[in-house]
Amino acid sequence: MTGKTAPPAKKPAPAVAKKKAVPALKGKTASKEEAAPKEEAAPKEEAAPKEEAAPAPATEEPPAPEHPLEQPPVPRDKPAPIAKEAGAEVTPMPAEGSPAPPAEPSASAPEPKLEKPREEPPSCPLSLAVEEVSENSFTLTWKALEQMGRAGLDGYVVEICKDGSSDWKAVNQEPFLSTRYTIPNLSSGDKIHVRVMAVSASGASVPATLEQPVLIREILQLPKIRMPRHLRETYIRRVGDAVNIMIPFQGKPQPEVTWTKGGQPLDINRINIRNTARDTIFYIRQAQRGDSGKYELTVQINGAEDKATLDIQVVEPPGPPQNLKLVDVWGFNVALEWTPPADNGNSEIKGYRVQKSDKKSGKWFTVLERCTRTSCTISDLIIGNTYSFRVFSENICGLSDSAAIASGVAYIEKTKTTYQPEKIPQRDMMEPPKFTQPLTDRTTTRGYSTHLFCSVRGFPQPKIIWLKNQMEIREDPKYIALIDQGVCSLEIRKPGPFDGGVYTCKAVNPLGEASVDCRLDVK
Asked: What one-character-per-residue DSSP string does 446-466 give?
């Protein structure tokens, strides 16, 4: 074989090797990636473990000669040898016509275990703020959570840390549910970082932290008394009542409270004083009139002070009026007078109540209420009765316990009177006749009776004369003349054509005469 023929014989071998080696590598990769059994690499995956069980020793390839050697031709009925690379696994190909080995089932991946959903911890507390700071403590407040989670809320935990340190310490031993907490036993001048966490069965929330540390020092506040509105006026109580007054004030540090009356300390045997950091309580178990007066309250801090005055008035019912007497009795009336009571009950007298009693019934009836004067007149008494009188004084507590009774009694006598008729002067009533309503012209129908009317006045009563066509009508049954209360009437019964004409009514008395006329037409 010449050098020219060797190369063509050498070319097909590596081509076959490359074509068969590639499926072998692909088969190994497919087994790791769990390839489907339809691929050609499935039978090769079965043979792969056998090869791994007894692997062939790796052979080093000799260096290629400068001139390639001639290789015998590969017979067509035998498969060409496959080049084996170092470290590569070779899977034998099945012979032609032989059945393919069964595909090895791919290794199933392990099923993932179902884990229970983890419960979320509660949300962070809201609006954390400092409410109050004193010389050895401070108070925190915050708002409730937005979300508490399924497990609910066990409470809150408060932790503190000094400025410059990272050591957080819990202040409360067990969780609590209040949204307000006071951290005590701190040193004045320290700067304290603080945070609050919500705790439940599912864990702790994200802590709510103050942006700036809290400086432990007492905030100075000037003293000020906040006198209630109803105590700015005179505080009135009855004798025997309890006096219990609370007056709030403000100031930091806690102010010094002092009570005095007229510049003198109070009698602790009668008056109890209890002071707190925010108010003072003034208490008297049973008030007496001697407890009345003005009390001075002083609240002082290091020279700064505020003052207020409490005016207490202890009152009781007044005494009865004095020197009640009957001044006069006339007709149906009685006049009384008295003087104010000796004891007004430590209150202004608002008036007097006057009562009367008649001897027959013996019952007392009120005649006047709230009479502001020390005298009065009682009227409309009944003739023949004998009356007694009494007077009560009245102040803000009410009526006096007893009344002043008049020493005498008032007897209303029957007065003897004689009837004397009043003399009425005689009035001159004389008057000549005068017609107040004249006659009026009329038209009547033949055969129907008709009337003529007029009215006249005069004293003495005038005489009435009727005329027809200036002729006096005398006793004629056709005519009926009447006069009643000054109204004159003439009835003409069933007049005919000859009854028409001028009719005249004449009134005559000693002082004169008067007349009126009218025309009557008969159709």
From this structure: TTS-EEEEEEEEEESPPEEEE
Q: Which two tokens stand for residue 381?
A: 């008494």
Cis upstream peptide for 75 (omega within 30°): no
CA 27 – CA 42 distance, rounded (Å): 7
* pLDDT at position 343 over 90: yes
Domain 126-216: state its class.
mainly beta
**Mean pLDDT, range 3-21, rounded to an integer:** 40
Query: What is the C-alpha separation between 455 and 510, in angstroms, rounded?
Result: 19
Contact assessment for residue 374 and residue 329, using Cβ atoms and an 8 Å cutoff: no
Cα 7 to the center of its chain, rounded Å: 111
The average confidence (pLDDT) of the chain is: 80
Give the mean pLDDT of 75-104: 45
Q: Is the pLDDT of residue 304 over 90?
A: no
C-alpha separations of 151 from 122, 154, 197, 452 in Å? 9, 9, 16, 121
Note whether 504 and 452 are within 8 A (CB). no
User: Was domain 221-315 assigned CATH 3.40.50.720?
Assistant: no
Domain ranges of the chain: 126-216, 221-315, 325-412, 431-522
Compute the half-sphere exposure of residue 311: CA atoms within 13 Å on the CB side of its CA. 5
Tell me the pLDDT tens digit for each residue of 283-302.
999 999 999 999 999 999 87
Quick one: 325-412 is in which CATH superfamily? Immunoglobulins (2.60.40.10)
Q: The whole model's pTM is what?
A: 0.43
CATH superfamily, domain 431-522, is: Immunoglobulins (2.60.40.10)
**How far apart (Å, rounded) are the C-alpha atoms in residues 347 and 470?**
100
As given in the structure block, the two tokens for residue 202 are 């599912």
Distances (CA, A) of 197 to 147, 178, 191: 13, 13, 20
Cis ω on the peptide bond leading into residue 460 (within 30° of 0)? yes
- pLDDT at residue 314 greater than cutoff 50: yes
Place of tokens 């001139």: 67
Q: Dump pLDDT digits (tens) for 109-127.
A: 555 555 555 677 888 888 8
